[in-house]
Design goal:
43% helix; 4-stranded antiparallel beta sheet; alpha+beta; 2 domains; C8orf32 fold
């Protein structure tokens, strides 16, 4: 009788193993084999360490739902990874991945990342087990980054003093970029979809004196990050601008609309879109600043 009792737990384990063999096999593949095969690069020096409402950094690269998938993609971009792997665990994960990486959803995730870690192109592949490989081509080269950092440091040495408040520093940089840059309306009319044009990036305002909204937003984001001021960019269907955390509140900041194009070519500097609330932005009713408040949650 004693031997029978000793065998009973083994028999129960055997029966359960047979019943749940598929789940056990999947668990071993997913949580042990693939988790060891997942490769994640360590965060680089431009990784953002802010707590946003829509996206969060994660150390779990097995996605069990859509939000975890979004957090994984954000973490990969935010780390500055050139390549990475993760695992899709829930049924619709690969479908969600396809939707996110082939639509503006990926741009929205990218807006929370330092411009230096932004992607130019993303290449995604997956296998039948749900293992995803992602390769990232960056928007900024190492030479771009070195040149931009040197120029921004040069600008800071000219216009920023130690006795300035954070707000005064932001205003000073806002004014400097507008005074030295014009909106690249010629390019807008001829070749807007050329992603390599410098007007789309911080290179434009800093070295060519011209920019489109992406260039204005990037150069301000780089400056804000250098001063450790929490920020991200907000995209509408046809525009992008900055969103800044200052004195315990969030504010919109749009260099593009504060640097209007004039009929006579005069360089005008406005402050209409300089550190304004969401209510103030909506009262201006430009038609260019409608955005998804389910993504940019701080800006509700």
């Amino acid at each position: 009788m004693k031997k029978l009792f000793n065998l009973l737990p083994l028999m129960i384990i055997l029966v359960l193993t047979i019943i749940y063999q598929d789940k056990i096999t999947n668990f071993i593949i997913e949580r042990i084999i693939f988790s060891k095969a997942i490769y994640i690069e360590e965060p680089n020096q431009y990784s953002v360490n802010y707590n946003f409402k829509y996206v969060h950094s994660t150390d779990d690269f097995i996605a069990d739902d859509k939000q975890e998938l979004i957090n994984i993609l954000y973490t990969i971009f935010n780390n500055g990874s050139n390549s990475s792997q993760f695992y899709c665990h829930y049924n619709e994960c690969l479908n969600d991945l396809d939707t996110i990486t082939s639509s503006k959803n990926l741009v929205n995730i990218n807006n929370y990342v330092h411009p230096y870690n932004n992607y130019r192109r993303v290449y995604v592949s997956s296998n039948s087990f749900g293992k995803v490989d992602i390769r990232i081509e960056k928007s900024y080269t190492s030479d771009n980054i070195e040149a931009i950092n040197n120029e921004i440091n040069n600008i800071i040495s000219k216009i920023i003093t130690s006795d300035m408040t954070t707000k005064e520093k932001i205003i000073a940089f806002h004014d400097y970029i507008i005074d030295t840059t014009y909106y690249d309306s010629n390019y807008l009319e001829t070749n807007l979809n050329d992603i390599d044009n410098p007007s789309h990036k911080a290179i434009g305002p800093l070295f060519f004196g011209k920019a489109l909204c992406g260039g204005y937003a990037d150069v301000m984001a780089i400056f804000l990050n250098q001063l450790n001021i929490p920020n991200y960019r907000i995209s509408s269907s046809n525009h992008i601008w900055n969103y800044v955390y200052l004195d315990n509140n969030w504010y919109h900041l749009d260099l593009t609309w504060d640097d209007p194009v004039t009929d006579n070519g005069e360089n005008i500097k406005l402050t209409t879109f300089l550190l304004i609330t969401t209510n103030q932005l909506e009262e201006l009713a430009t038609g260019y600043h409608s955005y998804d408040k389910n993504i940019y949650l701080e800006a509700k």
